[in-house]
TrEMBL record:
CDD domains: NAT_SF (cd04301). Keywords: Transferase. It comes from Aquisalimonas asiatica. GO terms for molecular function: acyltransferase activity, transferring groups other than amino-acyl groups. Residues 3-138 form the N-acetyltransferase domain. This is Acetyltransferase (GNAT) domain-containing protein.
Amino acid sequence: MAITFKVNHPVTTDQFIGLLESSSLGERRPIHDRDCMDGTISNSNLVVSAWDDELLVGIARGVTDFHYACYLSDLAVHQHYQRSGIGKRLQSLTQEQLGPLCKLILIAAPAANSYYRRLGYTHNDRCWVLDAGVTIGN
């Protein structure tokens, strides 16, 4: 298996959805809303991807200003390729695209907490989420 990594290489909506379906992220993303998934991948300004020939096997999808904060919105690795270092490499390559003061910020699934802790992330309990459909102040 010769995995190649690419920065901001085009990823189609179908490839993105297929990867999410083949990883644990498909359960927590609106993969049946094609318009949402299309907007999600096409409006990301930093996408690092992993490929086994033409098959998308990993993605680190970020939204960033490149200087202060990079929100790593998705980190997904195809289930047959997990535990091979792809996720770690995706994050490392993401960091390489960012300025020296830029932080990686993500929301982890509970089962992934120990993974991120081992990589050097610190837990922050100050995250707040406003769900879609909730009006500010009500």
